[in-house]
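DUF7730 domain-containing protein structure dump, as promised
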Amino acid sequence: MELPDGKTLRAGDHVSRNSQEEADIIFLRNQEASPLLQLPGEIRNKIYQYALGGHHIYLDEHQPSFKRLVIRRAEGKRISKDGLFALGYTCRQTHSESAILLFSLNEFIGYFWSTFEIQRCELFSPSQRNAIRNISVTICCFRHFKGSETIIVDKFGGLVRITLVATAVDVADTLEPGSECQPYTTDGRFHPISTSSATEPPVSSIDVDVDMSEAWEYAWETEHQDDDEDGQEQIEDEDGEGRKLVRCCSMARPQVPPFLKVLPTTQRFVTIHDYITQAHA
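structure tokens r here:
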């Protein structure tokens, strides 16, 4: 929206008192003159659904903020936030009628498998979060998401569907940037490279350091540290300076090995498929 002083008011912007007063004048004028608002409410709702629905809204993985939302049409084309939110900035009536539809008619995509990831959704108000019907959860592996579904349901009271999307593994022709890639899995079949040796020369086992395994024990303790103490079992820490949670909610503290040993399953050597399925399971 362009204000009389030449400034442009965009979705998510904060405005000064003077600019707000000028915007109020425009809102009122638009409301009185809008052909859209002369239509029956049922027709307006159809127009709102057509204009605002059917999009994928991506939450930035590292810097969650309104201005870093990425919005794409279902076919993948990126669209302007200013264009999508402009309808709500026409006047107060169109805002009150359409604003919440942005959340109920679109699918939100992000990494929602931990409390930390859920916190980025605090940029939405409770009513906006409760209006969200569809969430697509991108996960690296199932264990990241395990135990977090309750957190998601608590935060998004109106959820109808949660879609789990595993990150893809592609096979590149070369290591050069921009090299053509092929999917590792197609219709349940694996790429021919899956049976090749993971190393040259072939080996019978591979010891792998997995960053997430090192963090898994800490993540479990963080998840359970605020649970009812009656269900917790603690022992004295190794350094004698505190207590260590070893059992909670009928679950023992995960014992993480110093490394992951990848072993062959179908050949005498570790294949690429062995490595992918064991190191990323």
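The first helix runs from residue 17 to 33.
lmk if u need the other ones
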